[in-house]
Specification:
Distance between the termini of chain B: 82 Å
Oligomer: heterodimer
Structural class of chain B: mainly alpha
Radius of gyration of chain B: 24 Å
Strand content of chain A: under 5%
Distance between the termini of chain A: 97 Å
Number of helices of chain A: 4
Strand order of the largest sheet of chain B: 1-2
Largest sheet of chain A: none
Number of helices of chain B: 19
Largest sheet of chain B: 2 strands, antiparallel
Radius of gyration of chain A: 30 Å
């Protein structure tokens, strides 16, 4: 009976909602519920990492499209004095 | 739900890219590194996403980009040659069907690496690609770092987003890449303009470096520990107070030992006792086989030729008395060396991977591409380290960062078969892009006296 409830809880967590009926929580196998909590934690860490980096990537793209120097740059600062072979020539 | 978020996210990126076509190239880099199609269960994994976005990036360059500033370098030529040579060995090799499996992704990585430098024609583009590479890898590094802090990880046990062993998701590869890009993280935090240096950038970078250092502990990949040591030595070269740095590094290292998981210390201990370690003994046996194979087939056997090998080697018994007895898949008859018979073992080294698969010509081309990259970055560093121009202060530090990243890869790849890792080829493309960009800018900035710019007739009139 208890196993059936645990299964129901697992299915409900995966398929419906993370909030479970109290009756199910009251009679759960501790190992099962620990594993589920652990899996949920790992899932949360993954989502945090994805959200953080993807958010930063999106901000970066947003800033890039407003930067004219992405495609066209000013000419470089000219050399103050001759370098390399030009020293001999002049 | 995650699928829908990824689809919406990608559509948003692609929509923004239509405003600036170079963004398509960045989106392709993102897809190649993070592989969102592997993170989703439907929608994205049912379409050839990377092919579509590469097509858009290429079309964006051909149709909308200014080609006059693009340059083709010698190393890009070498990559074209390597691509053609790999194609030749794939179709004429010892195991053409097996070779096709690897060729299927290798050619894409090489084509993108050949194409990428053509688009890197402004400083901001170089920075943007660096930022994308770091942030994309950070998706795996942050999750891995937090999980390691929480559970300590374990060899083959740390799951990074998905339980997959391909690309950067493989433990040894992410360990090596996480450490290799630390110099790039530091460069971005000091010279970035997309996220200019401030307290948020500083703390994010510090946290990311900490997470990257945790990856080898979490994955328990010995290659990662070697890479950390190489990084520490390389940083020593450029720090101002070397003795202070060395002292602090040693102290920090010693202080970290009690916090390391026992399983990590045990696994790292096997580096010393390689004769009793199956993984290390297999490597040595495979490398011996590869040299013999290459001598018999100097032109290489094509991709995945390692599947032909049949190895027989002796494994010394573990002499440590305090360790629990090691378990083997085979029976032990006495206390002497154990004879192990194995077959189809992978190369476990990029150098031997190239030698076995592409023979001596392939290995020579590969070494030319990679050692050439390190050498060119050293040339750039020396040329720009004393520059007085405000606009060129970022060049030498980026060259150092790319050089160090590449050296870490070259050392790490001694023990991991990552000769064609797409992330590393992006790093190579970034180096080529920086190199060709700086050559062009130097040419444009060359000292040019007024007399030289005037037509000769005007000059003669003025002097008469």
């Amino acid at each position: 009976m208890c196993k059936i409830r645990v299964m129901a809880q697992t299915v409900a967590r995966k398929g419906l909602t993370s909030r479970q009926p109290k009756a199910c929580i009251a009679c759960t196998d501790t190992h099962e519920s620990d594993a589920l909590v652990e899996a949920a934690k790992l899932h949360m860490i993954d989502n945090f990492s994805i959200a953080l980096t993807h958010g930063l990537l999106l901000i970066a793209v947003w800033r890039l499209i407003h930067r004219p120097d992405l495609d066209h740059e000013d000419p470089p600062e000219p050399d103050a004095e001759p370098e390399g072979f030009q020293v001999k020539r002049n | 739900m995650r699928d829908l978020v990824f689809v919406a996210y990608l559509l948003a990126l692609l929509f923004l890219a239509f405003k600036r076509p170079f963004i398509f190239t960045l989106v392709y880099a993102y897809i190649d590194i993070v592989a969102p199609q592997r993170l989703s269960y439907f929608l994205l994994n049912s379409i050839p996403l990377s092919l579509i976005v590469f097509g858009m990036a290429f079309l964006g360059y051909v149709v909308a980009d200014d080609k006059k500033d693009s340059r083709f370098s010698v190393r890009q030529g070498a990559m074209v040659l390597l691509l053609l040579y790999c194609g030749y060995t794939t179709f004429t090799g010892a195991l053409p069907e097996d070779a096709m499996e690897k060729w299927d992704w290798v050619w894409k990585a090489l084509v993108f690496a050949i194409f990428l430098p053509l688009t890197l024609r402004t400083k901001l583009r170089i920075e943007a690609l660096t930022l994308f590479m770091v942030l994309c890898a950070a998706t795996l590094i942050i999750t891995g770092g937090i999980k390691t802090l929480g559970s300590g990880g374990g060899y083959g046990a740390l799951v990074l987003l998905i339980d997959d062993n391909a690309g950067l998701y493989e433990g040894s590869i992410i360990s090596m890449v996480a450490i290799a890009i630390i110099p790039l993280m530091l460069w971005l935090s000091k010279h970035g303009t997309i996220f200019p240096p401030d307290w948020r950038v500083k703390y994010f970078t510090l946290a990311l470096i900490f997470a990257a250092l945790l990856i080898p502990i979490g994955t328990q990949a010995r290659t990662g520990l070697v890479c950390i040591a190489v990084l520490a030595v390389l940083q020593l070269r450029f720090v101002k107070y070397r003795f202070l740095y060395a002292g602090m590094a040693v102290t920090l290292g010693l202080m970290a030992i009690p916090f390391l998981p026992q399983s990590f210390s045990d696994r790292m201990g096997t580096i010393q006792n390689y004769q009793a370690d199956e993984s290390a003994s297999t490597r040595i046996a495979v490398w011996e086989w590869t040299i013999e194979y290459a001598n018999a087939n100097p032109m290489g056997g094509g991709f995945n030729v390692y599947r032909l090998n049949k190895l027989r080697y002796e494994l010394a018994p573990d002499k440590k008395g305090d360790q629990p007895e090691q378990e083997y898949d085979y029976e032990l008859e006495d206390d002497g060396p154990i004879e192990v018979i194995d077959e189809a073992r992978a190369f476990h080294s990029s150098y031997f991977e190239m030698l076995g698969e592409q023979g001596y010509p392939g290995l020579a081309l590969w070494l030319f591409i990679h050692i050439g990259g390190i050498w060119r970055m050293e040339v750039l560093r020396r040329r720009y380290r004393k520059t007085t121009k405000e606009g060129e202060m970022w060049v030498a530090p980026l060259a150092i960062a790319l050089e160090n990243a590449h050296i870490i890869y070259m050392v790490g790849s001694l023990f991991v078969g990552v000769a064609f890792q797409p992330f590393v080829y992006m790093l190579v493309a970034l180096q080529i892009g920086l190199d060709t960009y700086m050559s062009r800018r130097a040419q444009e900035a060359k000292w040019n006296p007024i007399a030289g710019r005037l037509p000769s007739s005007t000059w003669s009139q003025a002097t008469s």
